[in-house]
Amino acid sequence: MDFDDLIVERPPTAGAPADQPDRHFYEGAVMLAYAMHLFRTEPVREVKIHPDGQHARQIDFPGWIEKRGFRRIETTRSAFAGTFEDAQGRRIVVHPQSGLSDVTAVANGTTIEAECKGGTIATRHPGRLSKLDKGLCEIVGRLMMKGPGTRQVAVMPATEVTRRVGRKLAPRCAAAGIRIALVDARGKVEDVEA
Description:
Helices cover 32% and strands 30% of the residues. By secondary structure, the protein is an alpha+beta fold. Residues 1-21 are annotated as: Disordered.
């Protein structure tokens, strides 16, 4: 599946060549990519995404979902929210409710809770690289505050920084029941092993 339309090119950072813009994966884009990954790899019939207004300003959730063969079957007060269903009866529920994990689904009786963070996927700028490091640590911390009984996943864009930090965090995360997943620019999700 092609996810190029979820990646935004930003102007190059100071000192970078003008023909090398930063490529950025917004948090809402990471949510959508992980939701589609769950449909491909888990026995789920419904995935719930819980974006906020900022995510909706960055990503056209209904437009992107409808381009993937889903049609809106329920609407809500928020223009970007609703329930979408494909020809196979699989559903994506976009529901802006705070306090819930970014992406949730139930597979074989186990609830999957994913916390997502966006970030730059192609840059050499130290500040943006540092944000990737901090972002992964932040969502792991958020997941550690949740109670046991669910499968918890920290999801970030796949970069050298997130792979390196993910490998360092993976053993402790595994002991806490947290997995780390990285989404590449094509929407492929890789698990970081402990």
